[in-house]
Amino acid sequence: MARKDNAATAANPGRLKQIALTYQMTRKADSKIGLVLAGVFIITFGVLLGIGFAIGHPVYLGILGVLLAFLATAIVFGRRAERAAFGQMEGQPGAAAAVLDNVGRGWTTTPAVAMNRSQDVVHRAVGKAGIVLVAEGNPNRVKSLLAAEKKKMNRIVADVPVHDLIVGNGEGQVPLKKLRTTMLKFPRVLTGPQVTTTNDRLRALGDLMSNMPLPKGPMPKGMRMPRGGPKAR
């Protein structure tokens, strides 16, 4: 019991510190966050306390009002903190990958499966909706990256649907803050075992590419790759 109490005591300061850091981060992007949270708490508590006086039970409704006021304040704080975080991430390289890592359970994310010299990048997520390719960068350049990666996915896992998204605020693009919602709206067509099989096949492809023996240095002039690839002995 003593160990559990000590662990709980040690965890609480960590949570409080995390909340304080989140509040400071949010305040940099949302200077009115303190007034908004105070207003939500006071209004929620005041309404329930007023109802309590009206029906003759101010104590009970007052206690309930405090609890609901804390809950409402926490919900509003969470949403505004999330909005502030997206605002700070938007336009930063790798922002889409950070969102994909927090889509939810059942999704496996592989960042930067394709990239060009201009640092336009395509990330891959696999879940019950199939394969989702998410591109971030110049809209005109990433289309070719997406097309090539989608063609490769259709060749490797032809029986799995492949969706493609471009993160941005232009026409036909998905804003960063709506990326998670958009992905969760895709219909679920795969079972858990099918998702696992798809991930295994893609992982095996990655291992094959990383372990493929390639000659070091420039290829000699006139040298051609053998047809048919290496033969098994």
From TrEMBL:
<feature type="transmembrane region" description="Helical">
    <location>
        <begin position="59"/>
        <end position="78"/>
    </location>
</feature>
<dbReference type="Pfam" id="PF13829">
    <property type="entry name" value="DUF4191"/>
</dbReference>
<feature type="region of interest" description="Disordered">
    <location>
        <begin position="208"/>
        <end position="233"/>
    </location>
</feature>
<keyword id="KW-0812">Transmembrane</keyword>
<protein>
    <submittedName>
        <fullName>DUF4191 domain-containing protein</fullName>
    </submittedName>
</protein>
<keyword id="KW-0472">Membrane</keyword>
<dbReference type="InterPro" id="IPR025445">
    <property type="entry name" value="DUF4191"/>
</dbReference>
<feature type="transmembrane region" description="Helical">
    <location>
        <begin position="33"/>
        <end position="53"/>
    </location>
</feature>
<keyword id="KW-1133">Transmembrane helix</keyword>
<feature type="compositionally biased region" description="Low complexity">
    <location>
        <begin position="219"/>
        <end position="233"/>
    </location>
</feature>
